[in-house]
Amino acid sequence: MPWRLAWQSALYGTTGFYRRQSPASHFVTATHPPLGRVLAEALWRLADLLEVSGIVDVGAGRGELLTVLHEHRPDRPLLGCDVVERPYELPEGISWRRSPGGASLAPDLLDLDDVLVVAHEWLDVVPCPIAQVDDAGVPRLVLVDPASGVESLGEPLEGPDLDWCRTWWPTIGSAGEPGSRIEVGRDRDLAWEDLLRRIRRGGALAIDYGHTAEQRPTNGSLTAYRAGRRVEPVPDGGCDLTAHVAVDSLRHDEIWTQAVAFDRLGMHEPTPDPALAQCDRAGYLRRLERSSAIARLTDREGFGAFRWVLVRQVD
Ligand SMILES: C[S@@+](CC[C@H](N)C(=O)[O-])C[C@H]1O[C@@H](n2cnc3c(N)ncnc32)[C@H](O)[C@@H]1O
Known about the structure:
- The protein has nine helices and 16 strands.
- By secondary structure, it is of the alpha/beta class.
- The chain has two domains: 10-126 and 184-263 and 300-314, Rossmann fold; 130-182, no CATH class.
- The chain has a seven-stranded mixed beta sheet.
- The mean pLDDT is 94.
- S-adenosylmethionine binds next to strand 2.
């Protein structure tokens, strides 16, 4: 079957990966301790700049980011959304909505008002068609056997997906090398639009692995994780499946790397002077933890290369 369908069923089917598994048990993201607390601080700074009161977390996992957002500002409204029931350990007062998964959002995630909507590593797990250029230079849908992961080439890509590739993926056409792969971003664009439509007043921020037209991955970026390890991408429900996001095709006002975003938000902390530890050990350790977290979150070889796709004002 086409990758998009196999991927959807593997992650969000009745026994899909994300229905059974907490993302945090399989891979580390910037929302997990000790980085999450500092990421949350940056998000509140952005919410303040946009002059909104609350934050909505779409693809909230088990509420890791919401919990630290709440620690910073317990008086502010928070809402999470994921494919599972509200995690029981979530602090009281945080609302929750349940989605079908992938591009389909919760039917009752509506009329979001006076909020910054954050989607941290959501769009990379929204399944999309995968195509491969054949020997004649024609991009064809890649089909996959869900049990084994063995691939074959199907029908030529056509319609809006082909149009999307012509606009956004320059390896199509004269530059299309046989064997090169395309992760067709149209489903992600539509999912993002759907999310934006649900915001009555506020901003939206997608934070994700991403690329722009100048540096698309010629061999694709589809990857799988299980129990902290990278594994072969087999859509059998036993692993996470993710592909980087074509961020420039998403509606946006700004696209920054996370390193640039932190700089603009004034998220700096120099390594504290060890002499501080003599007179204020707790203060020294606190500043050391914050400066180490900022260094990791802005490392251009790691989380610092993540893209922040910002829509400033949706109304
Ligand atoms: C890669 S994990 C990221 C979790 C968390 N945001 C983080 O960064 O640690 C992707 C999460 O998005 C959730 N997800 C996928 N599609 C969704 C949808 N349509 N609505 C809400 N959550 C969704 C998955 O269930 C999963 O928990």
